[in-house]
Amino acid sequence: xxxxxxxxxxxxxxxxxxxxxxxxxxxxxxxxxxxxxxxxxxxxxxxxxxxxxxxxxxxxxxxxxxxxxxxxxxxxxxxxxxxxxxxxxxxxxxxxxxxxxxxxxxxxxxxxxxxxxxxxxxxxxxxxxxxxxxxxxxxxxxxxxxxxxxxxxxxxxxxxxxxxxxxxxxxxxxxxxxxxxxxxxxxxxxxxxxxxxxxxxxxxxxxxxxxxxxxxxxxxxxxxxxxxxxxxxxxxxxxxxxxxxxxxxxxxxxxxxxxxxxxxxxxxxxxxxxxxx
Length: 277
Fold this sequence. Notes:
Elements: E1 2-7, E2 12-25, E3 29-35, E4 38-43, E5 46-50, H1 54-68, E6 74-79, H2 84-89, E7 96-101, H3 104-114, E8 126-130, H4 133-143, E9 147-153, H5 167-176, E10 177-183, H6 191-200, E11 206-213, E12 221-228, H7 235-242, H8 254-259, H9 265-270
């Protein structure tokens, strides 16, 4: 019996692997395994997704910021090479989506072996760019180009992704987006990384943390940071806008949206400031 997954600083999350479907390393080490819960994507030793659970991550990463903006027509995704975030964004019928992924191999491998994008990469509204996310955002800021929603779907901090956790990156993002959202690590097992994201994102006018239970990630409890000029939406508006998602999502709904911002006391105590919500 073989197991594969993620081993971190004092913790491990492992799944029984029937076989390894793919392994390659150019910019990052990419592995895909067949497990009891479907295919599992691992990049540089960190679990990115498992088919049975990926909707609990992608839906919360995408629909919270997309539902917050009153009319999200122009969307920028940084990272997200597996296509899950892109798939969810397209459910909102945007006019244009730019996806910036630093590693073409991630896109190619996921399109071939995972196929969770459901054809999103072939959508005519999508522009895929293979380049460094911070450089693309820097160029947008220089040109004065703006997006309604900017979503960061990056890996855990690594030499490849570290710039996406920097104050400089968040500063640039604040200039080119109305609503910004990023995954912000585990508040249980990655406390230092979680707090660093919150602190570095203080360049935004407003920011808030929300949580989701995601079985495939360390600790099972995952955090997200939403920031920008808009971070709140009313219950009535959520219910109204949710009609176009009805039947298209597995995890997200208005009640989950609202309750995800209810932070336990121990999480609030970790935060360097009282965040707005």
